[in-house]
Amino acid sequence: MNHYMTCKMARAGGLVLFAFVSLFSFHTLSAQNETDVLRYSLTESLGSIRTTGMGGAYGSLGADLASSVINPAGIGMYRRGDASLSMGLHSSKTKTSLSSSISLPQTENDLSATVGSIGLALTIPSVNPDWPFVTVAISHHKRAIFNQVLKLEDTEFQQSLLGVFQGLATGVHNEDLNNGEYPFTASLAWYTYLLDPFLDSDGEVDNYNYVTPFETNTPVMVDRSIERSGNMGETQYSFGGTFRDRISVGATVGTSKVYFSEDSRHTETPLDPGTDLAEWTYYESLVVEGTGIIGRLGVIANISKSMRVGVAWHSPTRLRLTDTYSRSVNSTWKDGEVYTADSPEGGYEYLVVTPSKTIVSGSFLIGKIALLSADYETTNLSNGKLKNVDSWLSNGYEFEAENASVEASYNRVHEVRIGLEMRIAKNWRIRSGTGMVTSPYSMASGVMSNGTRYKASLGTEFRNEDWYAGVAWTRSWFEEDLYFLDPELQGDPANLSRSLGMLSIGAGKRL
């Protein structure tokens, strides 16, 4: 490692200057891209015990606080007030496999407790006989849970991530690199002696080209882990009523709160026995926080005593988000030396606008024995947008390339939900539901995995005139592609086989 030690003194001062580098060197380091649009556009059917058990197929039904997130006209079907709470355990299972690796698929599980929904509805009698009751409601529902753990261990890659850092540094004077020209990537490699100036045949230092401890286009053994956590919750303020027991109308204004974090670790062990480097690790940390607003309108019509139809429209959700991110590099050498460098903390503020949704629903009452319900929901994900905001944490970037990628990568999504409720005794009901969401990915996206989402649910509940309590279970499963490295380095993407589940208990009181 003597060659790498020769530049140690020349670079020692850089660790001080590094902290003063601008936070805005790269707007893309906090990873605003088409993935953000998808993450906040696809939500889960996590509502009350009743709606969860029926798989979210509740668009033409009502008198349930979860109507505020499906079809707010259902709020107008209350005849008495209601207070309810549901909570449970959310599970996330990810099986990671890489076709270019001989390693076996690796499975990771995450389990967390969460409140699914809580709310209060107050029904007010009216002096107008055409509108005998109006209802106002406030509720809070989890719209998405982001918890996920995935790992690849002892997996051979044909090229090193260090080669990307070397490519960034090439052509940059080492004084600029020392002063943090690339504070989140190549400068970190410079400080940890993973990059050194190139020496020409005469032994002269080339300050614009760099060498690495091993050839970066040769195989390396990689351990990679990603841990994600957080959720998107929404508080709804709803209003509804029913005209002459024939047509129910309602509206909801929802305010969203987002928290998402991702910590990743990429460790490489060179397979070259002649290198002085034992291993090196690149750490990435990202936290996303923000708030948003959405509006919903709905109508439900009683076609007959046994049939109802409903239509609902959800406006685009406008989310104002702030990314906070940092990076670090650690290098461990065979002689026992260890070097660590940390980036400054970066920040960036921006908007994500998710596309609007339309829901068409129908339900049929089978005597006093059963209730069958179905929803059709559609949204065009290619209409999602990333936008700039006027903020000191923004640099005016307009996201033209990212929005073009959204438009090219995604298409219109169609979702069908079917739910069944059966009365098995005077006060006992059992429920089941199923559903399918078509793949959000277009042919042009190049996604190789099957992005179609499948859903199933079960539930049971005791319900009388004054109170109710029950349990519900729901599960969805689908596949995703993931590139741990640049596609040119990794080749084929990793396949993520994912399943999300929720086991909930809940209770409520009629007021």
Which short descriptors sum up this protein?
11 helices, Porin, single chain, two-stranded antiparallel ribbon, disordered N terminus, 14-stranded antiparallel beta barrel, elongated, mainly beta, 511 residues
Could you tell me how far the N terminus lies from the C terminus, measured between alpha carbons in angstroms?
76 Å
Low-confidence stretches: 1-29
For the record, what CATH class applies? Mainly Beta
Major sheet description: 14 strands, antiparallel, barrel
CATH architectural label: Beta Barrel
**What's the CATH topology label?**
Porin
Report strand order across the widest sheet. 1-2-3-7-8-9-10-14-15-17-18-19-20-21
Coarse morphology: elongated
Q: State Rg.
A: 27 Å
Secondary structural class: mainly beta
Average per-residue pLDDT, rounded, comes to 90
Count of individual helical segments: 11
Count of structural domains: 1
CATH superfamily: Outer membrane protein transport protein (OMPP1/FadL/TodX)
How large is the share of residues in beta strands?
A: over 45%
Q: Which bin fits the share of residues in helices?
A: 10-25%
